[in-house]
Write a structure and sequence with these properties.
This protein has helices spanning 10-23, 36-43, 47-59; strands at residues 63-66, 70-73. The protein has 79 residues and is mainly alpha-helical. The chain has 3 helices and 2 strands; from the N terminus they run αααββ. Helix 1 (10-23) crosses helix 3 (47-59) and helix 2 (36-43) crosses helix 3.
Length: 79
């Protein structure tokens, strides 16, 4: 799933994997995504890599972070 030796940065691969889970409906709107620690365990990456992946997902508009609560899948746009 994650190619540690490939040309695509690990944080992009992890973000892409989480995005796929969001788009498939595995991760639902307004529900939390896996924590940084969970991403570290699931994908075998460093904590900084997991953090950068979440930042990329925020930049893509797929998740929102609530301080003290966690990071949640953004609601689907309506219309």
């Amino acid at each position: 799933m994650i190619d540690h030796d490939g040309p695509v940065p690990l944080y992009v691969q992890v973000a892409d994997a989480v995005q796929t889970r969001i788009e498939s409906g595995e991760l639902l709107p307004n529900r939390p995504i896996p924590s940084e620690n969970r991403l570290v365990q699931e994908y075998g990456v460093a904590r900084g890599t997991a953090r950068k992946s979440i930042q990329l997902l925020r930049e893509r508009g797929l998740v929102t972070t609530v301080v003290g609560r966690g990071t949640f899948v953004a609601p689907h746009p309506t219309g």
